[in-house]
Design goal:
There is one protein chain. The protein is α/β, with parallel strands linked by helices. Helix content is 28%, strand content 20%. The protein has ten helices and 17 strands. The strands form two sheets. Strands 1, 2, 3, 4, 5, 6, 7, 8, 9, 10, 11 and 12 form a twelve-stranded mixed sheet that branches. A five-stranded parallel sheet has the order 15-14-16-13-17, with helices on both faces. Helix 1 crosses helix 5. The chain is globular and about 60 Å long. The chain starts with a strand and ends with a strand. The chain binds threonylcarbamoyladenylate and magnesium ion. The site of threonylcarbamoyladenylate has 28 residues, from strand 6, strand 7 and strand 11. Threonylcarbamoyladenylate (TXA) binds next to strand 6, strand 7 and strand 11.
Protein backbone atom coordinates (compact mmCIF):
# COMPACT_ATOMS: atom_id res chain seq x y z
CA UNK A 1 0.00 0.00 0.00
CA UNK A 2 1.31 3.43 -0.92
CA UNK A 3 0.67 6.09 1.73
CA UNK A 4 -0.77 9.18 0.06
CA UNK A 5 0.00 12.65 1.39
CA UNK A 6 -3.30 14.51 0.98
CA UNK A 7 -4.50 17.98 1.77
CA UNK A 8 -8.24 17.55 1.30
CA UNK A 9 -10.38 17.28 4.42
CA UNK A 10 -13.16 15.68 2.33
CA UNK A 11 -10.81 12.99 1.04
CA UNK A 12 -9.52 12.26 4.57
CA UNK A 13 -13.09 12.06 5.82
CA UNK A 14 -14.05 9.54 3.12
CA UNK A 15 -11.14 7.28 4.05
CA UNK A 16 -12.08 7.45 7.74
CA UNK A 17 -15.77 6.75 7.07
CA UNK A 18 -14.79 3.72 4.99
CA UNK A 19 -13.20 2.23 8.13
CA UNK A 20 -9.57 3.06 7.33
CA UNK A 21 -6.84 5.05 9.08
CA UNK A 22 -5.49 8.52 8.36
CA UNK A 23 -2.49 10.31 9.91
CA UNK A 24 -3.79 13.67 11.09
CA UNK A 25 -2.15 16.92 12.19
CA UNK A 26 -2.92 18.42 15.60
CA UNK A 27 -1.18 21.21 17.52
CA UNK A 28 0.50 18.74 19.90
CA UNK A 29 1.74 15.81 17.78
CA UNK A 30 0.40 14.05 14.67
CA UNK A 31 -2.27 11.44 15.43
CA UNK A 32 -3.24 8.14 13.80
CA UNK A 33 -7.00 8.48 13.47
CA UNK A 34 -9.94 6.11 13.08
CA UNK A 35 -13.70 6.62 13.37
CA UNK A 36 -14.13 6.15 17.13
CA UNK A 37 -17.52 4.47 16.65
CA UNK A 38 -16.10 1.79 14.32
CA UNK A 39 -14.45 -1.00 16.39
CA UNK A 40 -12.91 -2.70 13.38
CA UNK A 41 -11.26 0.54 12.30
CA UNK A 42 -9.99 1.25 15.82
CA UNK A 43 -8.48 -2.24 16.00
CA UNK A 44 -6.36 -1.36 12.96
CA UNK A 45 -4.69 1.41 15.00
CA UNK A 46 -3.36 -1.12 17.53
CA UNK A 47 -2.17 -3.40 14.73
CA UNK A 48 -0.40 -0.71 12.70
CA UNK A 49 1.36 0.86 15.71
CA UNK A 50 2.17 -2.44 17.42
CA UNK A 51 0.39 -0.92 20.42
CA UNK A 52 -0.41 -3.13 23.43
CA UNK A 53 -4.18 -3.78 23.50
CA UNK A 54 -4.41 -2.61 27.13
CA UNK A 55 -3.35 0.97 26.31
CA UNK A 56 -6.49 3.08 25.73
CA UNK A 57 -6.91 5.81 23.09
CA UNK A 58 -7.92 9.46 23.25
CA UNK A 59 -11.19 10.42 21.55
CA UNK A 60 -11.13 13.77 19.70
CA UNK A 61 -14.17 16.04 19.34
CA UNK A 62 -14.78 19.29 17.44
CA UNK A 63 -17.41 20.96 19.69
CA UNK A 64 -18.12 20.89 23.42
CA UNK A 65 -21.73 19.85 22.67
CA UNK A 66 -20.46 16.47 21.35
CA UNK A 67 -19.17 15.53 24.80
CA UNK A 68 -22.57 14.84 26.38
CA UNK A 69 -23.24 12.05 23.91
CA UNK A 70 -20.02 10.27 24.93
CA UNK A 71 -19.66 10.54 28.71
CA UNK A 72 -21.52 10.68 32.06
CA UNK A 73 -21.12 13.18 34.91
CA UNK A 74 -19.47 16.26 33.40
CA UNK A 75 -18.54 18.04 36.64
CA UNK A 76 -18.51 21.81 37.12
CA UNK A 77 -14.72 21.65 37.41
CA UNK A 78 -14.48 19.85 34.05
CA UNK A 79 -16.72 22.52 32.52
CA UNK A 80 -14.49 25.29 33.88
CA UNK A 81 -11.40 23.57 32.45
CA UNK A 82 -13.05 22.95 29.07
CA UNK A 83 -14.10 26.59 28.96
CA UNK A 84 -10.55 27.74 29.66
CA UNK A 85 -8.43 25.19 27.75
CA UNK A 86 -10.59 23.79 24.89
CA UNK A 87 -9.87 23.77 22.09
CA UNK A 88 -6.30 23.02 23.14
CA UNK A 89 -3.77 20.52 24.50
CA UNK A 90 -5.79 19.24 27.47
CA UNK A 91 -7.26 15.72 27.64
CA UNK A 92 -9.88 14.92 30.29
CA UNK A 93 -10.93 11.47 31.45
CA UNK A 94 -14.66 10.86 32.15
CA UNK A 95 -16.96 7.89 32.82
CA UNK A 96 -17.81 6.57 29.37
CA UNK A 97 -21.19 5.89 27.80
CA UNK A 98 -21.83 2.66 25.86
CA UNK A 99 -21.61 4.45 22.53
CA UNK A 100 -17.79 4.32 22.91
CA UNK A 101 -16.63 0.83 21.85
CA UNK A 102 -14.60 -1.09 24.46
CA UNK A 103 -11.65 -1.39 22.10
CA UNK A 104 -11.15 2.40 22.32
CA UNK A 105 -10.76 2.38 26.11
CA UNK A 106 -9.08 -1.04 26.41
CA UNK A 107 -12.25 -2.08 28.28
CA UNK A 108 -11.81 0.58 30.99
CA UNK A 109 -15.04 2.26 32.09
CA UNK A 110 -13.52 5.72 31.50
CA UNK A 111 -12.67 7.49 28.27
CA UNK A 112 -10.11 10.21 27.55
CA UNK A 113 -11.45 13.13 25.45
CA UNK A 114 -9.85 16.18 23.92
CA UNK A 115 -10.73 19.00 21.51
CA UNK A 116 -7.68 19.89 19.38
CA UNK A 117 -6.74 23.51 18.76
CA UNK A 118 -5.76 23.11 15.10
CA UNK A 119 -8.67 24.17 12.94
CA UNK A 120 -8.06 21.56 10.19
CA UNK A 121 -8.40 18.83 12.79
CA UNK A 122 -11.70 20.14 14.12
CA UNK A 123 -13.01 20.65 10.57
CA UNK A 124 -12.12 17.04 9.76
CA UNK A 125 -13.93 15.73 12.86
CA UNK A 126 -17.00 17.81 11.95
CA UNK A 127 -16.87 16.53 8.35
CA UNK A 128 -16.69 12.89 9.53
CA UNK A 129 -19.60 13.56 11.91
CA UNK A 130 -18.14 11.12 14.48
CA UNK A 131 -15.40 11.61 17.06
CA UNK A 132 -11.94 10.34 16.07
CA UNK A 133 -9.93 7.91 18.19
CA UNK A 134 -6.25 8.78 17.77
CA UNK A 135 -3.01 7.97 19.55
CA UNK A 136 0.23 9.60 18.43
CA UNK A 137 1.12 8.44 14.89
CA UNK A 138 4.45 6.77 15.75
CA UNK A 139 5.34 3.10 15.97
CA UNK A 140 4.75 2.07 19.58
CA UNK A 141 7.69 3.06 21.81
CA UNK A 142 9.22 5.56 19.33
CA UNK A 143 9.23 9.35 19.76
CA UNK A 144 5.95 11.00 18.72
CA UNK A 145 5.77 12.66 15.27
CA UNK A 146 5.70 16.46 15.07
CA UNK A 147 5.57 16.74 11.25
CA UNK A 148 3.84 14.76 8.50
CA UNK A 149 7.29 13.59 7.41
CA UNK A 150 7.85 11.93 10.80
CA UNK A 151 4.56 10.06 10.28
CA UNK A 152 5.84 8.77 6.93
CA UNK A 153 9.17 7.77 8.53
CA UNK A 154 7.27 5.36 10.79
CA UNK A 155 4.12 4.41 8.88
CA UNK A 156 4.82 4.76 5.14
CA UNK A 157 3.17 1.84 3.37
CA UNK A 158 1.19 0.85 6.47
CA UNK A 159 -1.69 3.38 6.24
CA UNK A 160 -3.65 4.73 3.25
CA UNK A 161 -3.03 8.46 3.85
CA UNK A 162 -1.62 11.31 5.89
CA UNK A 163 -3.48 14.62 5.95
CA UNK A 164 -0.73 17.19 5.52
CA UNK A 165 -0.79 20.03 8.04
CA UNK A 166 1.74 22.36 9.61
CA UNK A 167 4.54 21.22 11.91
CA UNK A 168 3.18 20.89 15.44
CA UNK A 169 3.39 24.15 17.36
CA UNK A 170 3.24 22.57 20.83
CA UNK A 171 5.43 19.54 20.11
CA UNK A 172 4.55 17.22 23.00
CA UNK A 173 1.32 15.34 23.63
CA UNK A 174 -1.58 16.84 25.56
CA UNK A 175 -1.75 17.10 29.33
CA UNK A 176 -3.95 14.22 30.57
CA UNK A 177 -6.06 14.68 33.71
CA UNK A 178 -8.64 12.43 35.33
CA UNK A 179 -11.82 14.38 36.10
CA UNK A 180 -14.00 11.31 36.67
CA UNK A 181 -14.06 11.89 40.43
CA UNK A 182 -13.96 14.98 42.62
CA UNK A 183 -10.21 14.60 43.15
CA UNK A 184 -8.55 15.75 39.94
CA UNK A 185 -5.30 13.94 39.14
CA UNK A 186 -2.76 14.77 36.43
CA UNK A 187 -1.62 11.55 34.73
CA UNK A 188 0.58 12.92 31.93
CA UNK A 189 2.14 16.41 31.85
CA UNK A 190 2.02 18.56 28.71
CA UNK A 191 2.28 22.22 27.77
CA UNK A 192 -0.57 23.01 30.19
CA UNK A 193 1.09 22.61 33.58
CA UNK A 194 -0.40 21.39 36.89
CA UNK A 195 -0.02 25.00 38.11
CA UNK A 196 -2.04 26.32 35.12
CA UNK A 197 -4.87 23.93 36.01
CA UNK A 198 -4.66 24.57 39.74
CA UNK A 199 -4.81 28.33 39.24
CA UNK A 200 -7.93 28.12 37.05
CA UNK A 201 -9.69 25.88 39.59
CA UNK A 202 -8.46 27.76 42.64
CA UNK A 203 -7.30 24.46 44.21
CA UNK A 204 -4.13 22.41 43.99
CA UNK A 205 -4.53 19.31 41.81
CA UNK A 206 -2.68 16.04 42.46
CA UNK A 207 0.12 14.85 40.15
CA UNK A 208 0.39 11.08 39.70
CA UNK A 209 3.62 9.62 41.03
CA UNK A 210 4.48 8.00 37.68
CA UNK A 211 5.00 11.43 36.07
CA UNK A 212 8.55 11.75 37.36
CA UNK A 213 9.15 8.45 39.18
CA UNK A 214 9.69 4.94 37.94
CA UNK A 215 6.60 3.12 39.21
CA UNK A 216 7.32 -0.57 39.40
CA UNK A 217 4.19 -1.73 41.17
CA UNK A 218 1.73 -2.33 38.29
CA UNK A 219 -1.26 -1.91 40.64
CA UNK A 220 -0.31 1.74 41.17
CA UNK A 221 -0.46 2.62 37.49
CA UNK A 222 -3.51 4.71 36.62
CA UNK A 223 -2.69 5.50 33.00
CA UNK A 224 -1.72 2.30 31.18
CA UNK A 225 0.61 4.17 28.78
CA UNK A 226 3.14 4.89 31.53
CA UNK A 227 4.22 1.32 32.04
CA UNK A 228 5.78 1.06 28.60
CA UNK A 229 9.22 2.37 27.61
CA UNK A 230 8.51 5.33 25.44
CA UNK A 231 9.92 7.97 23.14
CA UNK A 232 13.13 5.98 22.78
CA UNK A 233 15.70 6.05 20.03
CA UNK A 234 17.52 2.72 19.46
CA UNK A 235 20.72 4.38 20.69
CA UNK A 236 21.32 4.24 24.44
CA UNK A 237 20.27 7.52 26.06
CA UNK A 238 21.66 8.94 29.32
CA UNK A 239 20.43 12.17 30.94
CA UNK A 240 23.14 14.35 32.46
CA UNK A 241 22.11 16.84 35.09
CA UNK A 242 24.47 19.72 35.78
CA UNK A 243 25.85 23.05 34.55
CA UNK A 244 26.86 23.60 30.92
CA UNK A 245 30.55 23.44 31.83
CA UNK A 246 30.23 20.19 33.78
CA UNK A 247 28.16 18.67 30.97
CA UNK A 248 30.73 19.64 28.30
CA UNK A 249 33.68 18.49 30.41
CA UNK A 250 32.08 15.07 30.91
CA UNK A 251 30.72 14.31 27.44
CA UNK A 252 33.73 15.63 25.50
CA UNK A 253 35.76 12.79 27.06
CA UNK A 254 33.38 10.05 25.87
CA UNK A 255 34.11 7.72 22.96
CA UNK A 256 31.66 7.54 20.00
CA UNK A 257 29.10 9.64 21.83
CA UNK A 258 26.82 12.46 20.71
CA UNK A 259 25.08 15.10 22.73
CA UNK A 260 21.62 16.62 22.73
CA UNK A 261 22.13 19.92 24.46
CA UNK A 262 20.99 23.54 24.67
CA UNK A 263 21.88 26.36 22.25
CA UNK A 264 24.09 27.84 24.97
CA UNK A 265 26.14 24.60 25.21
CA UNK A 266 26.92 24.22 21.49
CA UNK A 267 30.10 26.33 21.54
CA UNK A 268 31.54 24.10 24.30
CA UNK A 269 30.88 20.80 22.54
CA UNK A 270 33.68 18.81 20.85
CA UNK A 271 31.50 15.81 19.96
CA UNK A 272 28.63 15.81 17.39
CA UNK A 273 25.75 17.70 19.00
CA UNK A 274 22.19 18.78 18.33
CA UNK A 275 20.31 21.42 20.28
CA UNK A 276 16.79 21.31 21.66
CA UNK A 277 16.60 25.07 21.99
CA UNK A 278 17.59 27.66 24.50
CA UNK A 279 18.04 26.63 28.12
CA UNK A 280 15.67 29.45 29.04
CA UNK A 281 12.88 28.65 26.55
CA UNK A 282 10.22 26.21 27.65
CA UNK A 283 8.43 26.41 24.29
CA UNK A 284 11.64 25.71 22.29
CA UNK A 285 12.34 22.62 24.36
CA UNK A 286 8.78 21.29 24.02
CA UNK A 287 8.71 21.93 20.29
CA UNK A 288 12.14 20.50 19.43
CA UNK A 289 12.26 17.56 21.86
CA UNK A 290 10.81 14.81 19.66
CA UNK A 291 12.50 15.99 16.46
CA UNK A 292 15.86 15.76 18.28
CA UNK A 293 15.09 12.35 19.79
CA UNK A 294 14.20 11.14 16.28
CA UNK A 295 17.53 12.39 14.89
CA UNK A 296 19.69 10.60 17.47
CA UNK A 297 19.85 7.22 15.70
CA UNK A 298 21.11 8.78 12.46
CA UNK A 299 24.49 9.44 14.19
CA UNK A 300 25.08 5.70 14.83
CA UNK A 301 26.76 6.56 18.13
CA UNK A 302 27.19 4.21 21.11
CA UNK A 303 25.41 6.58 23.41
CA UNK A 304 23.56 9.91 23.36
CA UNK A 305 24.02 12.20 26.34
CA UNK A 306 21.17 14.64 26.89
CA UNK A 307 21.75 17.77 28.94
CA UNK A 308 19.14 18.25 31.62
CA UNK A 309 19.47 21.68 33.14
CA UNK A 310 19.55 21.95 36.93
CA UNK A 311 16.29 23.96 36.72
CA UNK A 312 13.95 22.01 34.44
CA UNK A 313 11.38 24.49 33.13
CA UNK A 314 8.60 22.14 32.20
CA UNK A 315 7.47 18.87 33.77
CA UNK A 316 6.54 17.49 30.31
CA UNK A 317 10.13 17.84 29.07
CA UNK A 318 11.45 16.02 32.15
CA UNK A 319 8.77 13.31 31.89
CA UNK A 320 9.49 12.53 28.20
CA UNK A 321 13.27 12.55 28.70
CA UNK A 322 13.07 10.28 31.75
CA UNK A 323 11.07 7.79 29.70
CA UNK A 324 13.32 8.07 26.62
CA UNK A 325 16.32 7.20 28.82
CA UNK A 326 14.54 4.51 30.83
CA UNK A 327 15.13 6.72 33.94
CA UNK A 328 18.90 6.68 33.39
CA UNK A 329 20.10 9.93 35.01
CA UNK A 330 23.62 10.95 36.03
CA UNK A 331 24.05 14.03 38.20
CA UNK A 332 27.36 15.95 37.93
CA UNK A 333 28.20 18.01 40.99
O1 LIG B 1 -1.76 15.25 22.22
C1 LIG B 1 -2.19 14.11 22.32
O2 LIG B 1 -2.75 13.69 23.34
C2 LIG B 1 -2.02 13.19 21.10
C3 LIG B 1 -2.80 13.78 19.93
C4 LIG B 1 -2.82 12.88 18.72
O3 LIG B 1 -4.10 14.10 20.34
N1 LIG B 1 -2.47 11.86 21.40
C5 LIG B 1 -1.77 11.02 22.22
O4 LIG B 1 -2.31 9.77 22.37
O5 LIG B 1 -0.74 11.34 22.77
P1 LIG B 1 -1.49 8.52 22.97
O6 LIG B 1 -2.37 7.37 22.72
O7 LIG B 1 -0.15 8.47 22.39
O8 LIG B 1 -1.47 8.78 24.50
C6 LIG B 1 -2.65 8.69 25.27
C7 LIG B 1 -2.33 8.55 26.71
C8 LIG B 1 -1.76 7.19 27.04
O9 LIG B 1 -0.74 7.34 28.03
C9 LIG B 1 -2.96 6.43 27.60
O10 LIG B 1 -2.58 5.41 28.48
C10 LIG B 1 -3.73 7.54 28.29
O11 LIG B 1 -3.55 8.68 27.47
N2 LIG B 1 -5.18 7.24 28.35
C11 LIG B 1 -6.05 7.18 27.31
N3 LIG B 1 -7.27 6.81 27.74
C12 LIG B 1 -7.19 6.64 29.08
C13 LIG B 1 -8.11 6.24 30.09
N4 LIG B 1 -9.38 5.95 29.79
N5 LIG B 1 -7.66 6.16 31.37
C14 LIG B 1 -6.36 6.45 31.67
N6 LIG B 1 -5.44 6.83 30.74
C15 LIG B 1 -5.84 6.92 29.47
MG1 LIG C 1 1.82 8.03 22.15
Amino acid sequence: METLVIDSIQEASKILLSGNLVGIPTETVYGLAADAFNSEAVLKIFKVKGRPADNPLIVHISEFSELENLVYDISDKAKILADKFWPGPLTMIFKKKNIIPDVVTASLDCVAVRMPLLEITRKLIAEVGHPLAAPSANLSGKPSPTSYKHVLDDLNGKIPAVLKGPNCTVGVESTVIDVSSDKIVLLRPGKISPEDISSVLGEKIAVDKSVDHLVSNLDEIKSPGVKYKHYSPKTKVVLIKGSSNKFAEFVNEQYNAISMCFDEDLQLMKIPSISYGSQSSESDQLQLLFDCLRKIDSFHANVAYIHLSPQVLNLAVLNRLLRASGFNVLELK
